[in-house]
Structure formats: C-alpha cells, structure tokens
Design goal:
Layout (H helix, E strand, L loop, with lengths): L9 H22 L8 H21 L3 H5 L1 H14 L5 E4 L2 E7 L2 E3 L1 H18 L8 H21 L3 H17 L4 H24 L1 H11 L3 H11 L6 H17 L28 H34 L3 H23 L19 H35 L4 H20 L1
Antiparallel strand pairs: 1-2, 2-3
Helix pairs in contact: 1-2, 1-12, 2-14, 4-5, 5-6, 5-7, 5-13, 5-14, 6-7, 7-13, 9-10, 10-11, 11-12, 12-13, 12-14, 13-14, 14-15
C-alpha cells in the first residue's frame, strides 16, 4: 500500500502548497481589521496541515473501494444531509446546513459533493461505453442528484445545491449521453434560464410577493436583484457585491499592497462582508490587483489541466469519470465565486476552493485531490504490472525477450513523461 506514495503527483502537491501560501496571508489580511474574526488564519494553518494528511491518506486507499460500495457512500452522505433538518442541525448565515457532533462541526452539503461524484461515476461506468438511455439511465441518475438537491434547497443553501446540478451535467456529458438527449437538456435548460430571467424582471413585484410570503425566501431577492436589477436593488442588498466591485477596481493592475486595501482595511471595519470566506477574491483583487487574480487563475488552470491529464491516462473508466466530476465541481465553484463579484453570477455562499476560510470546504477539496492521486497511483501500478507481465509471457529466446523488454521500457517511458 505504501508503494502508492511513489506515484504521488508532485505537480498537484506543489500547487496545493502554493494555494496554502496564498490562503493564509489573505485570510490573515481579511481578519486583521478587528477582533471579531481574529484567529481564523491560525485555524486555516491547522486545517491545511490536516488537509495534507487527508490527501496522502486518500492516496493510499484504492479508489475502487469507494466505487465498489458507492451506495453506502451515497447513503451515508444522505443521512448526514437529512440530519441537518432535525434538531441536530444548526443555522449559520441563514442556511440550516450545519451539524454539531460533539466538538466537531461540519457542513454535510460540502461533504456530499464528493459522494455524489463517486455515485454518479459508478453508475455511468456500469454502462461500459453503451449510449445512455433517457428513461433507463438519464432519469434515474438525475433522481440520484435531485434528492440531495431538494434537501439542500430545504436547508436554504442555493450555492451548494446548484453545484450538484453542474456535477450531474458534467458527468452525463462525458458519460456517453446521446446527442439528441443532450440537445433537449440544453434547450430546456436555456429556456428555463432565459425564461426565468425574463419572467423575474417583467413580473418582479409578483415574484417578490411569492418568494416573501409563500416560500419565505425573501433573502433570495437580495441576492438576485443586485445581479439582474442592480438599479432597483436596495442599498443593503447590493452592499456586498457593489463594494466588492469597487474594491477589485481599486486594486488596479498590481493592487494597493498587503493589508493596505481601502475597502477591506477601512478604519471603521471592512466595507465588504465575509472577506475571509465568500468575498476573499475581493481581498486578493484590492491588495494584489489584476496580476494577483491572474496568478491565482493560472494555478487553478494548471491544477485542472493536471487532473484532466490523469483522467486521460486512467485505464479504468470509472476513475476518469470521478476526475471529470471533481473538475466540474471545482470549475463551478471558481466561476461562481469570482463571477458574483464581476456581475456574471448571483451572490451565493460558495467558497473559493483552497483559498476561502472553511474547514469542511478545504478538507473535502483536499480529499478530492487525494482521490485523484489514488487514481493516478492505481493507474501507474496497473501499468507496471502489465509491462512485467508482457515480459514474463514473451518468448524465452533472446530476440523475443529483448523485443518485449524494449516495448515495455518504451511504454513505461511514455507513461513517465505524462
């Protein structure tokens, strides 16, 4: 088992270390203007140390163990989600999505992302390259994602609920979805999106009354109005996104300097809420400017590119599917978190992967990288076994043996360059 560490992807490890090098100072800057959140930067050091332990531990575990018992993984995740709706659940920032089990607090909606990826990937892999049937495959797999989506929506956590939809769509697309079905889903999705936006703007008063009095979701208006109708949004509703835009714009090309941001380090307190978590990109933009944000995006690009390369190397279809699901999860979180401060997306509580403060979020992201590492390690081990099996089964004469040896070494060399 320990031999899997020989196949550690050091590119990903270095990226994670660089992310830690960004996260700790930025969180420190975000919480340094006041005593209310003091110490969160120190907590993130502890979470990162624990997270690296999780990465290397997950690397040692054969990922096929999770896919073998994927229904148990799914059931455990659903149990934790449902417990949040009981008296054990706790409410933070308007979302009843937290569990407090003794001294340990967790957000099951974050944990369930990886469980959903493993479950859907396992179901798709069973098709063995066959085209997905709509009622036989797409609908049942869709229900697998819809049930937790509904539970998380009941928790009042729109951001994490939408991540389940993006994971589902990403895996269906790569899982041999028929073009006609993909086209139908695209048309329906686009119709619902643009029709919903048009209806929201046209019948805003009626929608507001329905959300406030029927759904008891008045705070959704405060998140959607600044996105679709910024001129008509209330001052309180647009406070976070508007000031966030001003802060990022004020950073210019190279930023105002570490702990020198006018909006974040305002003497009367930060003018942008939640700069240590949801709004952390604002700190980076104001203090390190366009260059700082660009460098962070380059790190994300390298990380995602490396995971895609590992997915292409993988000989087991379920391993490739799992990586695609993890990539979809990360890309949604990155786009949503940054997009909500430049007017592309509505405001949600989605954290920026590996940068925002949050123990559950960081640990599940590190665990996801650990699963990717496990897939790479298992792929390399299987390839090595096949190479030596080719040599062993080759002819005993010198010509055949040397030919097999050369072929094996050639394939191993090509694998090592990836």
């Amino acid at each position: 088992m320990l031999t899997k560490w020989k196949h550690t992807d050091w590119t990903l490890v270095i990226i994670l270390m660089m992310m830690m090098g960004i996260c700790i100072p930025v969180v420190h800057s975000a919480v340094s203007n006041g005593d209310k959140f003091a110490g969160l930067d120190t907590q993130m050091i502890f979470y990162y140390i624990l997270g690296f332990g999780v990465v290397f531990l997950m690397t040692l575990v054969d990922y096929r163990l999770y896919t073998k018992y994927f229904w148990a993984v799914y059931a455990l995740g659903m149990l934790l989600l449902l417990l949040t709706l009981t008296p054990l659940g706790q409410t933070q920032n308007g979302a009843q999505g937290w569990l407090k089990l003794g001294p340990v607090g967790m957000q099951p909606a974050e944990l369930f992302k990886l469980a959903l990826v493993i479950t859907i990937a396992s179901l798709l892999a069973r098709k063995n390259k066959d085209k997905l049937g709509f009622f036989a495959d797409v609908v049942p797999i869709g229900l697998v994602a819809f049930v937790p989506f509904a539970v998380v929506m009941a928790q009042n956590d729109l951001g994490n609920a939408l991540s389940y939809v993006l994971i589902l769509l990403g895996l269906l697309w790569i899982g041999n979805l028929k073009f006609l079905h993909a086209f139908i889903i695209f048309v329906l999705g686009a119709g619902l999106l643009f029709g919903g936006i048009k209806g929201y703007v046209t019948y805003h008063d009626e929608v507001s009354d329905f959300m406030t009095n029927t759904l008891d979701r008045a705070h959704w208006l405060d998140r959607i109005d600044p996105w679709l109708m910024p001129e008509e949004a209330s001052r309180d509703a647009s406070w976070q996104t508007k000031n966030g835009k001003y802060a990022i714009a004020g950073g210019g090309m190279t930023g105002q300097g570490f702990k020198q941001g006018e909006m974040v380090q305002n003497p009367n307190g930060s003018l942008v809420p939640y700069t240590y978590s949801d709004s952390i990109i604002v700190v980076i933009g104001e203090e390190f400017g366009f260059v700082g944000i660009s460098l962070l995006l380059v790190l994300y690009f390298i990380m995602i590119h490396r995971m895609i390369v590992i997915a292409l190397e993988c000989r087991n279809r379920v391993g490739s599917y799992i990586i695609v699901g993890i990539v979809a999860m990360f890309m949604y979180q990155i786009f949503e978190n940054i997009g909500m401060f430049i007017g592309l997306m509505p405001l949600t509580g989605i954290t920026l992967p590996f940068i925002s403060y949050g123990g559950t979020s960081l640990l599940i992201n590190m665990a996801s990288i650990g699963v990717v590492m496990s897939i790479r390690a298992c792929t390399r081990e299987d390839a090595a076994k096949d190479e030596f099996s080719d040599i062993k089964d080759s002819k005993n004469d010198d010509g055949g043996g040397m030919q097999a040896m050369r072929g094996a070494l050639s394939r191993m060399g090509r694998s090592g360059k990836a």
